[in-house]
Amino acid sequence: MEIKIERATQLKDKPDQSQLGFGRYFTDHMFLMDYTEGKGWHDARIVPYGPLSLDPATMVLHYAQETFEGLKAYRTQDGEIQLFRPEMNAERLIRSNKRLCMAELPVDLFVESVEAIVKYEADWIPTEEGTSLYVRPFMFSSEAGVGVHPAKTYKFVIILSPVGAYYPEGVNPVKIWVEDEYVRAVKGGTGFAKCGGNYAASIAAQVKAEQNGYTQVLWLDGVHRKYVEEVGTMNVMFLIDNKIVTAPLEGSVLPGVTRNSILTILNDWGYEVEERHLSIDELMEAGRTGALKEGFGTGTAAVISPIGELKYKDDVVIINDFKTGELTQKLYDTLTGIQWGNVEDKYNWTRKIK
Ligand SMILES: *Cc1c(COP(=O)(O)O)cnc(C)c1O
Q1: 230 CB within 6 A, ligand 1
Q2: What is the Cα 318 distance to its own chain's centre?
Q3: Where do the structural domains in the chain lie, given as residue ranges?
Q4: Which CATH number among 1.10.10.10, 3.30.565.10, 3.30.470.10, 3.30.70.100 corresponds to the domain 4-163?
Q5: Is the CB of 194 under 6 A from ligand 1?
Q6: How far apart (Å, rounded) are the C-alpha atoms in residues 192 and 95?
Q7: Looking at the DSSP assignment, which residues form a beta bridge with residue 237?
Q8: Which of 70, 106, 137, 297 could covalently link to 231 via disulfide, CB atoms 3.0 to 4.6 Å apart?
Q9: Interval 48-94: pLDDT, tens
Q10: 269: Cβ contacts below 8 Å, ≥ 6 apart
């Protein structure tokens, strides 16, 4: 792939690495590529970071034909740069795009694009412990016109954001609101696709949770409002009676790269893993009897986020005395160790950028 480069005339000052937060700063350049029906992907380019100019009739603004991904680039202790399983993000983007009838981007083009922009912006990858460069690839219909049909043109964009540890004070349990009114996804819908539309529909519940003093929403299945599915931007797992229980991937749950990695590690460690329907009643009951030992969310941004409290209707359950569980901590240390290159990567998950 040939990539044209237009260098920014003025470079930004780099932010203080101890104050990065999440998704607040963006680098000097971005990656862009266009798709035109009959012509395929063309005009790959790295250009100065800045506004995109769109016709007001651009279809994405009306019908939300948009998909995205999220992964991180890490600076290892010996100064190398590595990505974590980027081909899984590429494959998921293809599945998301298929569902939204959007142009597909081959895996090798996706990975090559990510590597090119990360390498070009390499001096933006922070070096302090727990920091990384968040990579946000996204794609949208760029055709102008207000009829509802698949667009003939698309844009693929990658922006980069240096980020700090998701929780600056370290891994701490969060309070979770079990949502029993709104739903996120149903089988046959777009729950398995990483698309902006899913999030637009989820914000009302997130606002409600926050108004009640909770950090994130735990979604129940959209049909019975009974079975545990996932948490906000994360998949969710529970340690019940020494078994790990998580929702199966049946179309309404987002297939997380972190979820897959954690399940692989757990299997390796000899844990019994059950991908099955877990009713909220069973979960709350396990919380009351003490069978529920630990609970945590998994996702690229926070990696692992322990759950300290669940609130469902008028019921509240505290998990592990609102402390990070032993297994949760061990999983966090192992996976982040692999990602930053401090723990041997026997799974061959990391990919160095040369
Ligand atoms: C991205 C995302 C996840 C986590 O996926 P990872 O690949 O582990 O980052 C989980 N749930 C939803 C709804 C998501 O959008």
Answers
A1: yes
A2: 26
A3: 4-163, 174-339
A4: 3.30.470.10
A5: yes
A6: 8
A7: 246, 296
A8: 297
A9: 999 999 999 999 999 999 999 999 999 999 999 999 999 999 999 99
A10: none
